[in-house]
Design brief:
The complex is a heterodimer of chains A (about 110) and B (about 120). With about 110 residues, chain A is mainly β. Chain A contains no helices and 9 strands. Classes of the chains: A mainly beta (about 110), B mainly beta (about 120).
């Protein structure tokens, strides 16, 4: 069970859109539409932003969206805002009732 | 609403056993559809799923930690716990308890505790 692969960092200017990728294998991301995304600000617990690839929990801005193609899932944030600056983690069901996380991506709003 | 709170020693000596408890308030740990979970985050690093337990007693462990981890449930106290044996400095991390929706075609963590830092040092 290896960690999912995410870029270490991404950046964008306010108002722009950015996309964070999350690459797994045919044993996790590629096999299940069970990818979730979490936002973590410094010193706080992660917060669920997307589940089941593209569903948003109540209260999460519609500027956040998710997608998946093959073994790669993506999180897109449109209309970037200063408050979006945080670490983002993807997570996938990996079979046999196990989960695997990505290494995390730091988003910087320029 | 449901809240989770971790408790336990913040400092553990090498080779000893790390023990943490998560207290669930505002809801029953015996509610179906949720796996009660432990997740850790090494300083400045990513998240690592450790284990979870269902109210029925079903348990699932991260294969990389399975030999050292024990998770258990105390429904009378609405708590679940983690024990990690033979710890080393590499086990220094923030430990989160969390609630994972699962088993019905969905698997995601919808609720997290605030986390507790455990340092392994002599």
């Amino acid at each position: 069970q290896s960690a999912l692969t995410q870029p270490a960092s991404v950046s964008g200017s306010p108002g722009q859109s950015i996309t964070i990728s999350c690459t797994g294998t045919s044993s996790d991301v590629g096999s299940y539409n069970l990818v979730s995304w979490y936002q973590q600000h410094p010193g706080t617990a992660p917060k669920l932003m997307i589940y089941e690839v593209n569903k948003r929990p109540s209260g999460v801005s519609d500027r956040f969206s998710g997608s998946k193609s093959g073994n790669t899932a993506s999180l897109t944030i449109s209309g970037l805002q200063a408050e979006d600056e945080a670490d983002y983690y993807c997570c996938s069901y990996a079979g046999s009732s196990t989960l695997v996380f990505g290494g995390g991506t730091t988003l910087t709003v320029l | 609403q449901v809240q989770l709170q971790e408790s336990g020693p913040g400092l553990v000596k090498p080779s000893q056993t790390l023990s943490l408890i998560c207290t669930v308030s505002g809801g029953s740990i015996s509610s179906g559809g949720y796996y009660w979970s432990w997740i850790r985050q090494h300083p400045g690093k990513g998240l690592e799923w450790i284990a979870y337990i269902y109210y029925s007693g079903s348990i699932y462990y991260n294969p990389s930690l399975k030999s050292r981890v024990t998770i258990s449930l105390d429904t009378s106290k609405n708590q679940f716990s983690l024990r990690l044996s033979s710890v080393t400095a590499a086990d220094t991390a923030v430990y989160y308890c969390a609630r994972c929706r699962g088993g019905s075609g969905d698997w995601y963590i919808d609720l997290w505790g605030r986390g507790t830092l455990v340092t392994v040092s002599s």
